Amino acid sequence: MSFHKAIRKQVKLRLALCGPSGSGKTYSALLIAQGLAPDRRIALIDTERGSGELYSHLADYDAATLAPPFTPERYIKLIRDAEQAGYAVLIIDSLSHAWTGEGGVLDMHDKATLASRSGNSFMSWREVTPHHNALVDAIIGANLHVIATMRTKTAYDLVDDGKGGKKPIKVGLAPVQREGMEYEFTVVMDLSVDNHIATAAKDRTSLFDSRHFAPSPDTGVALREWLDSGVDPMAASQTLLDALKAVVAEIDSVTDLENWWRAHQGEISALMAVDLERLKLHCAIRKTTLLDALKPKPDSPPKVRGKKGNGEDRAHPPLESAA
Q1: CB under 8 Å to 56, separation ≥6 — which residues?
Q2: Is residue 6, in this structure, part of any structural domain at all?
Q3: 296 vs 68, 252, 257, 292, CA distance in Å?
Q4: Domain check: are 183 and 133 in the same one?
Q5: Chain segment 48-103, per-residue pLDDT in tens
Q6: Is residue 322 part of a domain?
Q7: Stated pTM of the model
Q8: Same domain, 290 and 205
Q9: Are 29 and 161 a contacting pair, CB within 8 Å?
Q10: In this predicted structure, what is the pLDDT of residue 245?
């Protein structure tokens, strides 16, 4: 594996809105979605018994009610349904149910532990974790913008109490989801109950550094402009493919072609899947051409004397005539 030039490409947004009940997570998600995809379709997964439809006056959106069990597979199906239906934005409200809700990952873990012979809860994670990872992969890989809301809980840390022991201290709020889930998102915003003020806990866009604000459609507009300012991945892949094909066309031996392929895996791996297949086909054709050039050429076939039109035929008439 080798390196290639880093280029920020256009991507789909992965935004997490975290906060306690009453902080305005659903409300803020719908406002941001309006600016993120104006005149485009918005979908919402509602795990709150229909409360997600209480904001229909804010935006034009479609809702799907998700009742228990809140298994990762049921979330995944709705994510794929929204993608296939052509929605521009999907709001998952809320993602916390996939962790702590009935049928969620923690519930699955408890049942797996009870069903095991050893009762070893640690070993049960080997059975449950792949389900959680599949949900994460579905969120990251979906070809649409995803806004996920997550409830928060008070987070504590253990520190020395000065007496040789430990004592818990409050260190803030943590999302109700598996530890580290927030790292899967492009932007993570914490919302306060008072005035629904947002603060970026994590921001790869640098748009909201040191800011405290009430989310609005303008928040979505700013995010959309940042996302669109990246390089079009299809155009970047096509440009790279054209450059690689031009190099391959100049290679004049099979050995050099094979060495080039091994030495440029960094660039080659940056191609989109369809362009990678095109490059493989181009290299295969070039290899065939080079191998054909190495094959010995057959001797020229003997000349066949014509039946008429040359002097030798006239000088030596057919035997029948001579008789």
Answers
A1: none
A2: no
A3: 73, 17, 21, 9
A4: yes
A5: 888 888 999 989 999 999 999 999 999 999 999 999 999 999 999 999 999 999 99
A6: no
A7: 0.74
A8: no
A9: no
A10: 95
Tokens 């598996």, located at residue: 178
Q: Residue 126 is part of a domain; what is its CATH number?
A: 3.40.50.300
Tokens 């104006």 belong to: 38
Give me the domain span that covers residue 246: 233-294
How many domains are contained in the chain?
2
- Asked whether the predicted pLDDT for residue 309 surpasses 90, the reply is no
Say if residue 211 is in the same domain as residue 270: no
Residues 177 and 250 in one domain: no
- Other beta carbons within 10 angstroms of residue 177's beta carbon come to 26
Give per-residue pLDDT as tens, 142-191.
999 999 999 997 655 666 767 777 766 544 567 889 888 988 999 999 99
Q: Which DSSP state fits 9?
A: B
**1 domain residue, yes or no:** no
Going by C-beta distance under 8 Å and a sequence separation of 6 or more, which residues neighbour residue 97? 47, 66, 70, 104
Amino acid 321: pLDDT: 40
Distance CA 203, CA 183 (A): 10
